[in-house]
Amino acid sequence: MRCFILYASSKDANFYYMTRFKTTDPCIYLLCEDKTELLIVPKMELRRAERESKVKELASFEDLGYKEFIKKLDPKEAVLQVLIRILNECKVKEVVVPENFPAYYAFKLSENFKIVFDNPVKKRRVIKSISEINEIEKVARKILETFDWLLKNFKFNRCEEVRRTVEMKLYEMGCLAEGTIASSGKISSDPHEIGRGKIEDHLVLDIFPKSLESLYYADFTRTIFLNKNLELEEMFDAVLDAQSEALSMIKDGVNARDVHEMVKCKLEERGFKTDKGEGFIHSTGHGVGLEIHEEPRISEQNYTLRSGMVVTVEPGLYYREVGGVRVEDLIVITKDGCKILTDYEKKIKLF
Questions:
Q1: Mind listing the domains of the chain with CATH numbers?
Q2: Which of 61, 306, 319, 331 has the fewest C-beta atoms under 10 angstroms from its C-beta?
Q3: 253's torsion region: left (phi>0), alpha (psi -120 to 50) or beta?
Q4: How confident is the model at residue 159 (pLDDT cuts 50, 70, 90)?
Q5: How far apart (Å, rounded) are the C-alpha atoms in residues 108 and 87?
Q6: How far apart are CA 182 and CA 162, in angstroms?
């Protein structure tokens, strides 16, 4: 018998995806090759798990002998013995664990079982269900509502003010936004610089909150121009054209690598070279779901895009002596193209 195991809380996207149970305490989830599922939780969480979890078979650590083991062992070893007891009762010979499985438990289990590192849940999460897409779209709508309000009330002087305002407004709408990028000036040449200080000629605003209810994310970036800057605007026009080409190319069956290579070529044709850590220095896009960065990647790697995948399309250009620009939309891939979940004006000028 082969068995897949997760030892995690709902902070782990794979655990939450399989259980739909929100918990801050680590629990054990088992999925055997005969499709048998078991969720093991602390005794105090059992009734709540019975109400909320989608896993039908549940047990508590205490029900499975934890109190017996804790009399002689430390808590970590007691949990391990509970797990070994269950695996032996199920006649498990091979244990499958994800790459982030606790090393201590993986090492100890290897003394009794064959260990294989794999993550079938991560692979399953790549194609989103209709209900998942709906949850992601709800978050996207809240981003657009917040962004629209921000533009109509833009009286900000500093990057920190924009970030704080965006994150507070989204929190009031039931979303948690952390590390929102509101970056201006030359430091915006670092794509993940969150921004600080005075807003100059432009502002790169990258908003990526998750729903506090569903835990699904959405992602959206616009470059806002506050003063005329021909160099930055020329960069942005090239980025915008590249994104448009990418969006027109994406559909079921397309190789993500071909999309990424096309974006690189388009930007180079416009005279924007990538060299020495400057230019187009990140992937064209990434999956979004229960994690803000998940499979698939639209990058140098071969990856066949499929209907139901939710991905970003976000080319950008970054030069240390000028700054950076980016435009990002969140899409659902369909059979014949894609549906944009963050449909909003692309080039924004507030001057």
A1: 2-124 (3.40.350.10), 130-349 (3.90.230.10)
A2: 306
A3: left
A4: very high
A5: 13
A6: 7
